[in-house]
Structure formats: structure tokens, C-alpha cells
Amino acid sequence: MALQTIEWKNDQIKIIDQTKLPLKLEYLYIRDLKGLWQAIRELKVRGAPALGAAAGLGVYLGIKDSKAKSHAELKREIERIVKYLATSRPTAINLFWGLERMSGVVLKNKDKSPDFIKNELFKEARKIIAEDKIACRKIGLHGAKLFEDRDAVLTICNAGILATIDYGTALGVIYRACEEGKRIKVFACETRPLLQGARLTAWELKRKGIDVTLICDNMAAALMKQGRVKKVIAGADRIAANGDTANKIGTYSLAVLSHIHRIPFYIAAPLSTFDLSIKSGKEIPNEERPAYEVTGLFFKQPVAPKGVKVFNPAFDVTPQQLITAIITDAGIIKPAYKINIKKAFKNAHQ
Ligand code: MRU
User: Fold this and answer.
1) Looking at residue 297, what is its pLDDT?
2) Same domain (yes/no): 59, 172
């Protein structure tokens, strides 16, 4: 059965509850905004592109039963919804990009009735979903060209089906390479503290019949030294105008290791993950998450003394100098990033 991470079903938002994986494939129906906010905060739905879709469907969910009688009234309600959802998680730009697209619909339809606008908002949310499906496949198509038969690829976190609508960015590239008949061996970093690599990437790759080997995060350097990793590929939560890339904590160390071992280090992301309003990674807001995620093993078994001080940033920023190429739906972007990212956007919007 094909998976879809998030969709609109029975007048609700239907998501795969990712906190239940790999033990159970369980769907969760979300009926109200608070439920969506919590699902995002608790990583029941996660991954930058999936959060873009959650933003789109979330705004519609929040407004669909509105009794607003005028454009101004509806606009005020939507502003409130957008503000609220924007507080769920700070780093993945796709969330804010999705919210902005939904706000744009209201601004564009000043002279239209609330019912008409609601309908347009529904269409926009579904468009965000449809576009992601296409974008991920384009990323796969472009990125697969960089991979050869029998390549061994290291990845971190989950940038696959579960982080997007149904295909993936970094894992989308691997899926496409495999669809082309290339035999790819994947090493998945477990990705402490929340184990997206162990729980999600290993699960979805295995389900697809792809050769995956799970490693603890601190094993990557040894593996590279032994010459067993030919390429590294990761997703992104936000890419600045100069190419600096925020992604799951631990991505930066893999980039440093790749540099030392002369292994190509790729980022795969749709154009919706770029934030051209910021010059560099220094401006990317980083989420700090609760201590119990580090002191306990996936909320269950305690693995640290009670009350110990904890540092738990969810993301880090990989400087653009360490990135060999950024694989996007608009093609492969190579250094010099500042110039070439601009060019890619210009071409894409022509
Ligand atoms: O905290 P998460 O699980 O939402 O972090 C997700 C990542 O870091 C992904 O690599 C990123 O969002 C890209 S998903 C295609």
C-alpha cells in the first residue's frame, strides 16, 4: 500500500502518527487547530515539506466553519490562525511558507465572499500537497544522476516519504536511483535524541526493499575512514540565500567528516525550503527542545541521572562551503551558491 503522510480526509486532517513508528502504522485524524499544533510540536507530523502541507490544511481546518460575514472579518480570523500555527515549531521554513501562501489567498480575493475564499483556501492547501509530490519526484530525477550503481550512501534523520507527502527529498533521490536499476546501499544514522533515522528512515527503506544498515550517530567517522561511505545526502529545514543549510542536529558533523574524508556531501530540498530573506545561516532560528528527549530513550527508558543539565537543539547549520551540491526540484545547484541560488529561482519563476 502506498503511503501518504498527510492528507484531507472526512473533513479532517489525516496524518500518519510518526511517534508510533516503527511499532505501528497508525493514522491520526485531527479535528481542530490545537490538535494540529500539538501534533506538530510532538513530531507526530514532521519534516519540512510535510509541515508546509500541515500549514496549508491547518489554515483551512481553522477557517472552514467560520461564520465570518465579510472579507475583513475572515481576514482577521485567518491572521489569528496563522499566528497560532507559526508558534508550533520555528526552524523549518516550509511551515511559514505554507502559512504565507494561505494568507496570500485572502489578500488576493479582497472583493470576494467568505464562502468563495474558503473554497479557494481549500484549493490552495491541496495545491501545496500536489506540488510537493511533483517537486520530490523532480529532486529524485535530478539527484539520481549523481549516484552510481553500487554506491554506499549515508543519511541522517528522515528526509523520506514520512517527511514529505509521499516520496521524499534525500530518500527520494535514493528511491529514484533504485528505480533506475542502481544498487544502492544506505547507512542510516539513528539520529538521537528522537531517533528519526532508526524509527522512520530504516522503517521506510526496509518497507521499500532497499538495502539499509542502521548505525549509531557516533559510528559515521569510523565507517568513512574504512572507505565504506561513497556519498552523504541529507534533507534541509531552511536554506539561506548563501547556501548555509539548517537540518537535523548532527548534519553539520557529517559535513565536516565528509570534508575530511573527501566524500561528496549533498543536500536535497525543494525550492520551498529556501529562505532568500536571510543572508546566511546565522539568521536561522533554532529550536531547543525539552530535556526529557535526551535523558530518556524515546520518552520511555531513563538513560541519564534525574535533573542533569541538558542541551537539546533540534537542528544545526552546515556552512555552504561544506556542501558539494544542493539538489532541488529546479535542478542541481553548485557553488558559488549565492549567485547560483538566485539564478535557479529566476529560471524557476520565468
Ligand atoms: O525534527 P524533524 O524530524 O522535523 O527534523 C526533520 C529534518 O531535519 C529533515 O531532515 C528535514 O525536515 C528535511 S525533510 C525532507
Assistant:
1) 83
2) no
